[in-house]
Design a protein that fits this description.
With 334 residues, the protein is mostly helical. 52% of the residues lie in helices and 1% in strands. Helix 1 crosses helix 14. Pfam families: HMUDK_hel (PF18723).
């Protein structure tokens, strides 16, 4: 089998970026005051955390939806996880809960209350969806507005099919992905993100290394890091990087202890390729790319969500002493 050929300077940058971006995360999580890095690119622009689960939107989903204080039926929790990720906007979810008097349930979906709340938000000029990525904005269900088509999608999934039962009985992360991907409006990227979100919860339990689906940004990053991927597919390249992480951090003399001992998994490596693509627009502008600038500048968030990860990962105990000493306003999740 042909082995991949790396572009050495960019390949090393992948690991150096990972180590430095995670060091920034750790410093901020410990409540340290900035500046957190001497890297001018990381200091100037907004980059996702190395670990997807540590980003602000995922943190909200894990704490408030996957593991809420109030008891939820499993089927309602599954609906909430999928609906939240489709919007990927904390403010939208908080407004939905305020209007409904709690988290949306299938009763709200079936009665039309959920749709009514979304329509009311839109009529007030509220932006329902995140601007972080592009959704499949088709009228697959014959309705003229995007949010109405998504409401019909949720009804299709939860009221008109055995989708919930099949997801909760799935035998692999890839099967969860394929079950989601089978529906209209659910493209490759969104289906993978939702599968990972469901896997945060107790509804299913698979390794994040079992399956990966690189998105457009990751594919751009792979093309920059590698001159030639040999016989490996993009998914195999991601797994190849996951397998090599300890060796590469050691080779470069980088201090990287993971997320409280948790290694980089396939979803994180997939995201790292996307962030490396962005970083290279400044660090290696001569590299051919369809995108030449980083749009989002770093802006310090005025408040933080306390860190919380899926209990089945068994890393939350490592956070207790840290969070007791952290400054309350420290923006750990941007």
């Amino acid at each position: 089998m042909l082995t991949p050929t790396v572009r050495s300077d960019v390949f090393d940058t992948f690991w150096q970026f990972a180590a430095e971006r995670h060091r920034v995360f750790e410093s901020r999580a410990h409540g340290e005051k900035g500046p957190w890095t001497t890297d001018p690119i990381i200091a100037k622009y907004k980059f996702c955390n190395v670990y997807r689960a540590a980003d602000r939107v995922s943190q909200f989903l894990i704490r408030h939806i996957a593991y809420p204080v109030a008891m939820q039926r499993d089927i309602d929790k599954l609906f909430q996880i999928i609906a939240f990720r489709v919007f990927s906007k904390i403010e939208t979810w908080e407004q939905i809960e305020a209007e409904l008097g709690g988290s949306p349930t299938l009763v709200d979906l079936e009665s039309g209350r959920f749709e009514h709340v979304l329509t009311r938000l839109r009529s007030r000029g509220e932006k329902i969806y995140t601007g972080a990525f592009i959704l499949c904005a088709t009228d697959a269900y014959g309705r003229r507005l995007k949010h109405l088509n998504h409401v019909q999608l949720f009804k299709h999934m939860f009221l008109d099919s055995d989708f919930p039962k099949r997801v909760m009985g799935a035998q692999s992360l890839q099967e969860v992905y394929e079950l989601v991907h089978a529906f209209p409006l659910m493209g490759d990227f969104m289906s993978y993100q939702i599968a990972i979100d469901i896997n945060y919860s107790e509804l299913v339990n698979f390794s994040e290394d079992d399956f990966t689906q690189p998105g457009p940004g990751a594919l751009r990053g792979i093309r920059k890091v590698f001159k030639d991927t040999g016989a490996l597919t993009p998914s195999e390249i991601i797994h190849w990087m996951v397998d090599r992480q300890e060796h590469e951090f050691s080779r470069l003399g980088l201090d990287f202890n993971g997320l409280y001992g948790r290694r980089i998994h396939a979803i994180d490596a997939q995201n790292l390729f996307c962030e490396t693509d962005k970083y290279c627009r400044e660090a290696f502008p001569a590299l051919a790319s369809t995108r030449t600038r980083i749009k989002a500048k770093f802006v310090e968030t005025p408040s933080a969500l306390p860190l919380f990860f899926p209990p089945k990962w068994r890393i939350n105990h490592s956070l207790l002493s840290q969070q007791d000493s952290a400054v309350r306003r420290e923006p750990a999740f941007t």
